[in-house]
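Q: Second attempt. The first request was missing the SMILES, so the protein and flavin-adenine dinucleotide are both included now.
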Amino acid sequence: MAIDFKRSWTDPDLDQFRDTVVRFIEEEMLPDDEAARKRGHVGHDIWRKAGATGLLCTDIPDTWGGGGGDFRHEVVFYEEMCRRSLTGMNASVHSIVAHYFLNHGTEEQKRHYLPRMARGEIVGAIAMTEPGTGSDLQGIRTRAQRVGDHYVLNGSKTFISNGFLAGVVLVVCKTDPAQGASGTSILIVDTENCPGFRVGRVLDKMGLKAQDTSELFFDDVQVPVTQLLGGKEGQGFYQLMGDLPYERLIIGVTALAAMEGAYEATLAYVRERQAFGQPIANFQNTKFKLAEVATEIKVGRAFMDRCVEDLVAGKLDTATASMAKLWGSEAQGRVIDTCLQLFGGYGYMNEYLIARMYTDARIQRIYGGTSEIMKEVISRAM
Ligand SMILES: Cc1cc2nc3c(=O)[nH]c(=O)nc-3n(C[C@H](O)[C@H](O)[C@H](O)COP(=O)(O)OP(=O)(O)OC[C@H]3O[C@@H](n4cnc5c(N)ncnc54)[C@H](O)[C@@H]3O)c2cc1C
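A: Got both inputs this time. The predicted holo structure:
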């Protein structure tokens, strides 16, 4: 009997939704992945198709054009992409941006952006990191100065996921540099017809090759005051902190899904590949390594499922979510490295899923808050 990694939180409706997701991924995403990795982005079409299929903003209420589901629907989509190393479409950042609108936006901002994001007509990005500062967000220098009914925005951001394709960017900036954290705000910037806004290069990364990660430049960009998220200055840090459990758990669940995908691919490979006149699956080392991997996944599943259930119930705290991000991303690195070894030289070839998974995995320990920052957050709760 095969080891069962069934999720505790699933149900027949979610299983059916998963079938829709898998069909979409296999028919629409997989065939273009190689080309997307060469291009450095997935293009707008696939976003619109995903929107039309009901795969975007699934946990945004239907009153705002979303799917009316909950976090489990989001997880299903991310899991099925990650287990196949389809990391081009950053639907999770898109969803995180939608949640900023949902939780902090004015009625008008929600009405204007959420339905279009759910349809995939505009892609969302959030720009915090700058060339000079990442972990220490208080050090950002991007400045928005109010002049009449506009802000004048100046600064630059880097490493921005979805940055090349984004139609809307939430820009974290200082509206009052003298006030430190409470002088930080988030401006909503429409990227189309936006004088002074420029997207830099699509950055050349070691992994996530199909995902557009870009620099963004703001040079005297005029942003109407109505584009201040929530309509009140100085709320940026409070808004950024609000959804941290959601954002961190996404990385945890995607890490675990990638581990499952790696395990399945490795199991298939070792049963087929022969050495010394027998499948390499027969060697005790292979069995023991895969037993360790399966154990990590099974143990991780119990914790991650509990986190998913707690998040849906509105009771996942930031420290526990940080543990999910920390443990998940670190375990993903360990497990995929172990699996790759069992592929021998083929594991080093990009045409093999495991090679792509290896390079895709490395960033999980860095973005969304590094492992070291996760430890800081966890230790503050002790
Ligand atoms: C592919 C990719 C996608 C990304 N997407 C986005 C995005 O969409 N939006 C966005 O805003 N940013 C994004 N980022 C940026 C990412 O969140 C940052 O790279 C990350 O937060 C780390 O910041 P940094 O690179 O400036 O590293 P630094 O902050 O300079 O850290 C360097 C090292 O110092 C360590 N360190 C820092 N502070 C401490 C401390 N207090 N204690 C112990 N160690 C510490 C770090 O853990 C790290 O090991 C992305 C990055 C990449 C590579």
